[in-house]
């Protein structure tokens, strides 16, 4: 069984500046949803450093996918709705923590 101490919200901020750094390796949905990480394993295979850790990376990817451990909320202050979505996710986490503290 997997038990995480604290719920958390991952915010992928400064999305309005991402194009300044050139083309990203994958499309935005890949980073925000984190549904299929096998592409990441293939991407790591090109790097000699990560080649030595292929089995470890494969097992980590399986755990992350099986339990849906990682997702990101994009935050672009120039686009209406993104700040509200991040705030709503934070409220969900806050509610969950308050529920745990009250023993409900």
Secondary structure elements and their pairing?
Elements: E1 11-12, H1 28-33, H2 38-45, H3 48-51, H4 54-66, E2 73-74, H5 82-101
Parallel strand pairs: 1-2
Note down, in words, how this protein is organized.
With 104 residues, the protein is mainly alpha-helical. The chain contains five helices and two strands; from the N terminus they run βααααβα. It has helices spanning 28-33, 38-45, 48-51, 54-66, 82-101; strands at 11-12, 73-74. A two-stranded parallel sheet has the order 1-2. α2 packs antiparallel against α4. The two termini are 21 Å apart. The mean pLDDT is 76.
Task: List how many beta strands DSSP finds.
Answer: 2
Low-confidence stretches: none
Q: Count of DSSP helices?
A: 5
| Structural class by helix and strand composition | mainly alpha
Rg: 17 Å
Instruction: Going across the biggest sheet, name each strand in turn.
Output: 1-2
Strand content: under 5%
Ends apart, CA distance between termini = 21 Å
What are the secondary-structure elements, in order, as H or E? EHHHHEH
The major sheet is characterized as: 2 strands, parallel
Binned, the helix content reads 40-55%
């Amino acid at each position: 069984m997997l038990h995480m101490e604290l719920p958390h919200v991952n915010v992928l901020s400064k999305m309005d500046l991402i194009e300044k750094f050139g083309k990203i390796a994958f499309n935005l949905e890949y980073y925000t949803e984190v549904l299929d990480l096998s592409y990441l394993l293939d991407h790591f295979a090109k790097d000699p450093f990560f080649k030595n850790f292929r089995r470890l990376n494969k097992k980590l990817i399986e755990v992350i996918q099986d339990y849906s451990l990682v997702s990101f909320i994009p935050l672009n202050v120039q686009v209406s709705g993104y700040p509200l979505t991040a705030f709503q996710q934070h409220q969900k986490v806050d509610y969950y923590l308050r529920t745990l503290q009250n023993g409900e």
